[in-house]
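Notebook, bench 3.
Goal today: get a predicted structure for Two component sigma-54 specific Fis family transcriptional regulator from Flavobacterium beibuense so we can plan the truncation constructs. The sequence was checked against the plasmid map this morning, with no discrepancies at the termini. Length recorded as 387 residues. Pasting the sequence as submitted so the record is complete.
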Amino acid sequence: MSKILIIEDEAAIRRVLSKILAEESDSYKIEEAEDGQQGIEKIKNDDFDLVLCDIKMPKMDGVEVLEAIKKIKPEIPFVMISGHGDLETAVQTMRLGAFDYISKPPDLNRLLNTVRNALDRKTLVVENKMLKKKVSKNYEMIGSSEPINLIKDIIEKVAPTDARVLITGPNGTGKELVAHWLHEKSERNAAPFIEVNCAAIPSELIESELFGHVKGAFTSAVKDRAGKFEAADKGTIFLDEIGDMSLPAQAKVLRALQENMIQRVGAEKDIKVDVRVIAATNKDLKKEIEEGRFREDLYHRLAVILIKVPALNDRRDDIPELISHFSDKIAGEQGTSRKQFSDSAVKLLQEYDWTGNIRELRNVVERLIILGGSEISENDVKLFASK
């Protein structure tokens, strides 16, 4: 059933609209409100798929109703009902987010087409939101321990915003998975997700890599080249191991965050970019600041939201789930049957000191699957997973 609310102060027009819609489809459930205030209360307390709203009403006009509802339930399409003298205002409501407007007295075909199109649009918006909440299987965060559930809760709250996030934690804990989750659950997930490993790029090349360069900027600059910030426009840039970035590059990143502007190496022209920045590091940035290797102002720009990813030793309860996940994944990659791990084998792996974290566990699981028996036993673990 599609729930439609008619907000109209003239009872005769409400009756006509309700009758037309009811005769069009028995899948329409129609409710009425006699003024704007009553309409807002109904929308606050119930879910509607479409609102037909008169513009000129006592107490509160249709423009005010539209503005109020767009703040709390922006996904609801509004079709404005306008008299001849209201056409200019009706056009204005389109700029405020109304789906369309129909004139009084309503033309039957025009009304029904508008209603059908508005309901189709609402369905697409809802489906799109549901898709955005799904994260690619490649970037699942496996585990249900308290530390991991806390991170998942933070992601759900932070991802839809454009807040910058700094992810900290030891190597191999899955900081890049957190970054992917933040992007895929955001409103930017249809745009690029650009990863930059700051530790893997020589310091003399990092500025060119991030911001691009113009021809002749340096010896090997044989043509203009866009950088990672431009490539990530409208999307997300993930600055991994940002603690290894040089101070000159940090200064340019700071400017990009402050002004949403970048400048290619060797150029004088500024380029506007719309990029969400997520950064990660395994270093203690506060210590790096004290020792003069990291800019304090950049730290505060990046660390709007802090997410600390725990070491595997601090989330041992997740190891059985991780072993199962890696077993499935490795079997799929190798085209073999999935091997089971005995309870005693899993328990022994839970007791290990995982200095390499999730990355090390994944390697050990793969080694056991290749070298172990048809079921991975405690003895297999002692033989092939010894530290």
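The longest helix spans residues 108-133. The radius of gyration is 28 Å.
Flagging this for group meeting.
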